[in-house]
Amino acid sequence: MTADDSLSAEDLSFQAEVRAFLDEKFDPELRAQTERQAGVFAEDTVARRWHRALHERGWAAPAWPAEYGGSGWTATQRQIFAIECARVGTPALPSMGITLCGPVIMKYGTDEQKAYFLPRMLSGEHVWAQGYSEPQSGSDLASLQTRAVRDGDDYVVNGSKIWTTNAHNADWIFMLVRTAAEGKPQAGISFLVSPMNAPGITVRPILSTSGEHELNQLFFDNLRIPVANRMGAENEGWTVAKYLLEFERGGGSLGVGLKVGLEKVKTMATQEPSGDEAALLADPDFRRKAALMEIDMITADWTDLYLSSGAGVGESVGGTAASIKKLLASHKSQEVAELAMEVLGLYAAPDQRRALGAYPQEGPIGPPYAITPTTRHINNRASTVYGGSSEVQHNILARLLGL
């Protein structure tokens, strides 16, 4: 089930162990709730329940070093776990804590910060949000204007963050703030963390085009953050931020979810008719599109394995590889979502929002598989923007490769 489909006896045993765990813990109720999730991440009640199940088994952080509570798995075992979870469609957990901020704390945090934050992040007690983008600072992140002024043992923070995913459910937030105005824009930025219930934080929801509430705008009004909550040195947050982005853009298994998504689309095509009323999967034009995508998925899978092979447990794949993975993942996921819309035809038109979520308010219009694709397609239009736009990734690659 890796790129060459060859597994050792030990890995086959591990695969069986993972499947047994999923059969037991990913129960019918949770499966049904997850099938109705259309956002980037599962809604809070679903995500927290699945996180607890993983933590109880010691599997909440497969890529963390064992010394911090990670699984201690090999790269092949991590790939097997990702494949098996994708195969059954487990909930997509928010990545801002374990995937993004966790490695930052491991590298730049003090011993006290590691001892406090990492166990709570691992257990799911602390869910995190990311405070990077601002109303006038998205792709040009270095132009951010949220200010943090030193006042004794605190920073006093004023400003705003936008497109803040899951902030309405988060317990903590990590953020970039401006602590100096002199020199290059990147030189005056610091990396701070704050509890979301601190006085001075206001969360205002932003509804997506699909109608979902995943995004928010945050306002900081004399928010006081202890200096002890800074990661890394003052005015050196840009270095910390770049390290974190390597995990945001290069984390996860690239080809796994794409291949599973394409297989689901092909399964839908066995139920939907083509122009001559035969199954759409029998249509030569559709089969050609699906075959070309499948070739892309195989390429993406090999690319992922190649890029990740040099990274040890708890390490990033590096800036160049992260940008390559980000570009492939965002563009190919959009292509799969667009093909799903093509398969659905008229079933892609109805408003299915009331049939979505863990506790839907009405039943689906059409077959059950028609509930989520339209909303996922709409949400997925942003994948070439968030986490660093495709244009930014091309610029990074051009600069790093000397083009």
Mean pLDDT: 89
Which range does the strand content fall in? Answer: 5-15%
What is the second-level CATH architecture of the largest domain?
Answer: Up-down Bundle
Biggest sheet architecture: 4 strands, mixed
Q: What is the CATH third-level topology name of the largest domain?
A: Butyryl-CoA Dehydrogenase, subunit A, domain 3
Q: What letter string, H or E per element, gives the SSE order?
A: HHHHHHEEEEEEEEHHHHHH
Q: Please identify the top-level CATH class of the largest domain.
A: Mainly Alpha
Query: How would you describe the shape?
Result: globular
**Count of alpha/pi helices:** 12
Number of domains: 3
Describe the structure.
This protein has 403 residues and is of the alpha+beta class. The chain folds into three domains: 9-93, no CATH class; 128-234, Butyryl-CoA Dehydrogenase, subunit A, domain 2, CATH 2.40.110.10; 251-400, Butyryl-CoA Dehydrogenase, subunit A, domain 3. 44% of the residues lie in helices and 13% in strands. The chain has twelve helices and eight strands. Strands 1-4-5-8 form a four-stranded mixed sheet. The protein has a four-stranded antiparallel sheet with strand order 2-3-7-6, with no helix packed on it. The chain is globular, with a radius of gyration of 22 Å. The model has no long low-confidence stretch (mean pLDDT 89).
